[in-house]
Amino acid sequence: MSATTTALARVLVVDDELGPRESLRMLLKPVYQIQTAENGRTALDLLRRFQPDVVIMDIKMPEMDGLELLRHVKRADPSIEVVMITAYASLETVKHALTHGAFEYLIKPFSRQDLEDVVRRALLRRQADLGARGQVARLVEDMRRLSTKTRELEEAARGEAAEQSLRVTQLSILREISRTIVGQLDPQHVTAAVTEQLRTALGYDSVAIVPEAPADLDRADAAVIDCAIRDVQGSLGHLVVDNRPSRRAIDPRERELLEMLSEYLAIALRNSRLYGEIADTKQLLEQTIASAGEAIISVSPDDRIEKWNPAAERIFGLGAGQAIGRPITDLLHRGDYTEAKRRLAEGTPIHAFETTATAGQPRPPELAVTLSALHGRHGRLDGLIAIVRDITAQREIEKQHRQSEKLTALGQLAGGIAHDFNNLLQAILGYAQLMKQNPQDAEFVARSLNVVEAAAVDGSETVRRIQQFARLRPDEQFVGVDVNQIVHDAVAIVRPRWEEKIARDNRPLDLRLDLGTIETVNGRPAAMTELMTNLILNALDAMPDGGTLTVTTRGEPGRQITLMVTDTGVGMPEPVRRRIFEPFFSTKGEAGSGLGLSMVYSIVRRHGGEIRVESEPGRGATFTLTFPVASEPVGAEPETVLPRARRPARVLLVDDDPKVLGTLTEILRSVGHTVTAAASGSAGLAGYRPGRFDVVLSNLGMAGMNGWELAERVRHVDTNVAILFITGWGLRDEEHGRLKMLKIRKCLFKPVRPVELDAAIQDAIAAV
Predict the structure, then answer these.
(1) pTM above the 0.85 mark?
(2) pLDDT higher for 321 or 677?
(3) Helix or strand run (H / E) with residue 766
């Protein structure tokens, strides 16, 4: 563009802030004629007086914003080019601006070069548009001149040449006008563009596009014409040109032109209707997404959030401004999302998984996520749609339901225990009353006492099993255990089942042992073997079509050993994986009891270990168990190598149950021990003096000062005296360490037999 041309160009700057407004004026002043306005109303006043070629306006302004001012400017003169300036580069704002006719937009801050470039391009387009309008006017004059000339010429040859020139001119006019309407999608814009072009270029009194033909139209009147606008789908309206006010007749050649133009209009109006339908559908979809109860998130190919609906704000506790542009893996677990995306890229259309939110609310919600692939024309993954549902409340209800089921099971268990104990108590009570009635019948009394003793023993055995089930009582002594040997023993146990399965199913089964050099652990060999056997059998059931089972052991010297059992079987989904260690939960239907893995978990925990499982459907499972290396077993009974002579002991006996206190006192005195009985922990402590007793035998669960507190007080004044515990409650796993810290020689479990009680006393005084 020449300097002369640009010097005549007029630019209007509209901004409600003085600083940006003056900055733009100073930048453009050396090249263009500049006027400024501080608001939309002032700009509209200047529009008529200044007649700008380009308007540069801010989008965010009070009273009348940039979008409203843009509409006013385009209605006043569609040829004025408008450049929008914004500091808020949202896609929605830009779309509205461009839809309403803006030439370009600039995002603050922008460079001087960007500003000069956009103004230069805007002026070029305006000049091209004005030139096109002038070209239409010139072509119309040519058409009218040729039309007149055609009527005057009598010679057929010359008339034919003029007719051809007329057709060429008509087509040129159509081409120029169609350039105006072909890019318009809004029906009002199409109508305004056509009527303006026809009025300006052909000089008609009135041009209108209406749905129906006017009722008062006289088709014989040469000053008015009605052209139907229609396509194969039907009528789209009528193009009405009316010169009746001036009574200027419309030339027949112009009628032909208008009829041809109607065909172009049909295409433009049909497109505009389709555009309206698309806009309505888009609005409906946006409303549906906005009102959805589930989070609907659009994710870019590089895993960044592009769209974020109100439900997503509620679920994740993040506004759209905080979420858009952020990596989706900030909100969803990276491993779960990456695996889902990998499957979608391989062709899976939809993949669902459950996870926990990693950001947002203080208490991350549990989520059910469905990922869908968005593929491009060439099959490339162009993005993802994530539909996320908050299932925290659902999981809580399920948890409560499972708890209710457990309580029901415990109620049934308690009912069964009550039934057994009532039977035992009936026998004990019945024979006790009969003995009172027949004290002189020595044979009957002896027989009755045997029945009472047997009933009591049966009751104690029932209690022992309950305590073992509740992990309150060890079922055998802890010793040093070689886990590698446990693996070999378990493999030998399951070998027949393994070989039978190969022969029956004719499927390949491969067992691989990768056993490293490891230290021993504290444990119960029978329990550890049962644990390993259950894991191998579980893996065997998980490979119905054959596969490979790998058992691996590794050690960290002085710390822990790791045992891994890996199969290549069917695997399990996340909901199953979370519940496999629950009692009575089974995936094998009637074929499974649901106790195998629950027992494994119980044994691992009783041995101070940890267990975790990694599995996915179709990708097998890996159980990883860790155990601390062996240390001195707590509360273990010392091995008796040689018989030793019995010694009487001075015993402080403490129990808050009078019947138990009396019974134990008589038992101890019957075998020669000196007993001082105390009916509470505080009474026992009050009577204690260092050197006065050889053994302190205390109940654990007592009102007021319990056995733990008594032992701590005694140890505070005497670090050497032997202390024994006796309990009817049992011991939790974590309490074994406390026994060792207080140097408790042994913990006896009620009911205790006289021989067992005396043996514990003898062991205690022999070790001092």
Answers:
(1) no
(2) 677
(3) helix 754-767
Q: Of the given ranges (137-151, 498-512, 614-628), which has the lowest mean pLDDT?
A: 137-151
Asked if residue 132 is part of any domain, the answer here is no
Residue range 579-587: mean pLDDT, rounded: 66
CATH number at residue 164: 3.30.450.40
If one counts the domains in the chain, the total is 6
Query: Are 530 and 612 within one domain?
Result: yes
Residues 6+ apart with CB under 8 A from 767: 638, 722, 745
The pLDDT-based confidence of 498 (bands split at 50, 70, 90) is: confident
Domain boundary pick from 92, 110, 128: 110
Tokens of 59: 């989008």
Beta-carbon-side half-sphere exposure of residue 186 (alpha carbons within 13 Å) = 10
In the β-sheet with 381-390, what is the strand arrangement from edge to edge? 305-308, 295-299, 381-390, 366-375, 350-356
Q: Is 621 found in the same domain as 486?
A: yes
**One domain for residues 334 and 416:** no
Domain membership of residue 258 (yes or no) is yes
- Distances in Å between the alpha carbon of 512 and those of 522, 531, 533, 565? 26, 18, 15, 10
**Domain boundary residue, one of 371, 390, 409:** 390
Distance of CA 469 to the CA centre of its chain: 37
pLDDT tens-digit map of 399-410: 787 777 666 656
- Alpha carbon distance 216, 656 (integer Å): 115
